[in-house]
Amino acid sequence: MKNNALIMIAVALAVATSLMPVALSFEDAKEDNIFQVSVIRATVEGLYDGVMTFEDLKDHGDFGIGTFERLEGELVVLDGEFYQLMSDGTARIAKDSMETPLATVTFFDADKNLSLEEEMNFSELESYLDGHISTENIFYAIRIDGTFDYIKTRSVPAQEKPYPPLAEAVKEQTTLEFNNMSGTIVGFRYPDFAQGLGLPGYHMHFITFDRSSGGHLLDCVVRNASVSIDEISEFEMALPKDQDFQRADLSDDKKEELKKAESDTDLRSNSSSSS
Amino acid sequence: MKNNALIMIAVALAVATSLMPVALSFEDAKEDNIFQVSVIRATVEGLYDGVMTFEDLKDHGDFGIGTFERLEGELVVLDGEFYQLMSDGTARIAKDSMETPLATVTFFDADKNLSLEEEMNFSELESYLDGHISTENIFYAIRIDGTFDYIKTRSVPAQEKPYPPLAEAVKEQTTLEFNNMSGTIVGFRYPDFAQGLGLPGYHMHFITFDRSSGGHLLDCVVRNASVSIDEISEFEMALPKDQDFQRADLSDDKKEELKKAESDTDLRSNSSSSS
Predict the structure, then answer these.
(1) In a domain, B265, yes or no
(2) I need a surface site. Which of A265, B54, B197, B213 has the fewest CB within 10 A?
């Protein structure tokens, strides 16, 4: 009788679990989307309190970028690992219990793989990517593994309350420069109509091959790299529910302030003087 | 033994189904979001081909607004029914097989119910709503059932290819005016940072109490109405995959063009002259 009962349990479990594919297929369908916590417009305003744990964020992607509570470092999510790139140049694994104020993740699934062999600077790399996307009107996740003749990144130290706006906070940023460094660029391209949600155009972070250092990408010269592009037409966003977010005045788009905070000011003044 | 086996099956089923709440809670969580097909910026550009069937759209909401293939009328989704408000002033049920180029839906679940008793014009109504939301930084679905001293709506006739941009298409709009009419306003409020995705601020459609007529709301005077507000922090968007969308130049935000196409020009010129 004991055996019979076990067989019955097995059958019953099989029947019951056969009821579950609805949920699974829903999960599957969700995998080719971008999931974003908060909006970059809130970060520009100085909202650096965490609003979602990395434990929860992991349910939404294995690849991405973002920042940390108090703006303490830059986030790189790569192959399911969550790295915190500190302003002292070191990288560490982010704890599940830590919270992010702003992050964008996806389950990376390349639609296009390219082999990049010529030497390119940062703006040439962006033009190269622009030449290999089918439209500017959807989202893309971009992964570039390779050797970089030059890489310049930045990271920001933890801020204290009352938090300064991003334009002030990045004045304390530390920049790192690498020569002849292997590593991975992790980033996204947003369409122009999504400005306010994320950085328009490319937003990329970098982590070294040994996953020991990196930051928000400011400049680079790339040579010999493999480029993978994930085309993404579905976008999902969870807005914070805390009072700071509710009370923030986000009506002005502060486009220029954002652009300045997230790009290399030296590089921008160089490029404008050379044009 | 048969009894024992049945008990075992019952126990096993109970165990197995206890594994399912993860999926169910995920579904539950999805219900308090906004789901949007395409972006209004694409409609401004004249992209009126359908990109999702109403059958599929029904999975994402029972309440909402939008438009139809060829811009043929205004969409009102109310209590799970999908209405097409034609430019001749009549309403009909939209077929499941029909497709929408642009729609926003949610499963309506009121967080706040208000009783509106004073007489208010359109801009007073918007200010009243602004006074009853906790923050301008999330999304809201808004339902207003009541008696309207005055209602002005518009609807647009079907367009022919090559489609003109929205600013041209609305020149053919038919406006309807109602006095002392009972009915329902169905709409959303988007935060400013979501401009480009949808109309910033309020975007509302109207349908008469007998569900026989209505359109995109241009003006109103309301008296005795019940107002229900659904606060929504999660936003989901599916972008079109067709070539017209891929090829469209959506880089300029065309804010003024959109505002003009979606509001009452007479009303706007009146209000600007009175200010």
Answers:
(1) yes
(2) A265
Tokens for B134?
């906790």
What token pair was written down for A91? 């990288």
- Kindly state the helix (H) or strand (E) to which residue B54 belongs, with its residue range: helix B54-57
Residues 182-241 on B with a CB inside 8 Å of A are: 191-197, 233-241
pTM: 0.86
Mapping DSSP to helix (H, G, I), strand (E, B) and coil, where does residue A220 land?
strand
Helix (H, G, I), strand (E, B) or coil at A188: strand
- Do the domain assignments include residue B24? no
Q: For residue A253, name the pLDDT band (cuts at 50, 70, 90).
A: confident
CB–CB contact A240 B234 (8 Å): no
Is pLDDT of A11 > 70? no
Cα B273 → chain centroid:
30
Alpha carbons B90 and A54: distance in angstroms, whole number: 51
Cβ–Cβ below 8 Å for B237 and A235: yes
CATH label of the domain that carries residue B217: 3.30.1330.80
Distance from C-alpha of B176 to C-alpha of B154, rounded to nearest angstrom: 6
Give the number of domains in chain B.
Answer: 1
Q: What is the dihedral of CA A92, A94, A99, A102, to 10 degrees?
A: 70
Residues A110-158 have pLDDT tens digits of 999 999 999 999 999 999 999 999 999 999 999 999 999 999 999 999 9
Which of A4, A23, A137 has its CB closest to that of B245? A137
